[in-house]
Amino acid sequence: MQAGTSVRHARPTDASQMARVHVDGWRQTYRGTVPDGVLDDPGLLASRERFWHGALTDERWARNAVAVAEVGGTVVGIAMAGPPPDPEAWWQVQLHVLYVDPDHHGSGAAAELLDAVVDPTAPAALWVADPNPRAQVFYRKHGFAPDGHARTEDGVRELRWVRP
């Protein structure tokens, strides 16, 4: 991992910085797929901040693991994983969120975040946008592969990837 970068459990006081990384990640990843009106909504950042505050304080989310990568006290990456929402899932954990600020791509922060929220030896699953070659190369490198399931949510086609 890049010198000066650390990964730790997220705290409620991180919610605003986490929201910024999340929204920036969406805008970078989904621009051209999701309508600009959604990505440029003036309330999007506040909405994501409320989401992250809830994810870090509400008992309903207590079984999730949430981590941040930071450099010099600034959050540059976020990750969240938890129990799979599908009761018939054979994997133990599902990655729900993983974004790293573009200025820190290639720093190793994403790999550290993934390992912080998903045991590297545990069967796991995630949904990844298609196309999203950068993310797909990353997940393949970490043992994930598409299992043939696809869905479309909010206009974004996603593929399910699993790691046995």
UniProtKB/TrEMBL annotation:
It comes from the Bacteria. The keyword Nucleotide-binding does not apply. This is GNAT family N-acetyltransferase. PANTHER family: AMINOALKYLPHOSPHONATE N-ACETYLTRANSFERASE-RELATED-RELATED. Gene3D superfamilies: 3.40.630.30. The keyword Transferase applies. Residues 5-164 form the N-acetyltransferase domain. It holds the Pfam family Acetyltransf_1. Keywords: Acyltransferase, Transferase. InterPro entries: Acyl_CoA_acyltransferase (IPR016181), Bact_Acetyltransf (IPR050832), GNAT_dom (IPR000182). It comes from Kineococcus endophyticus.
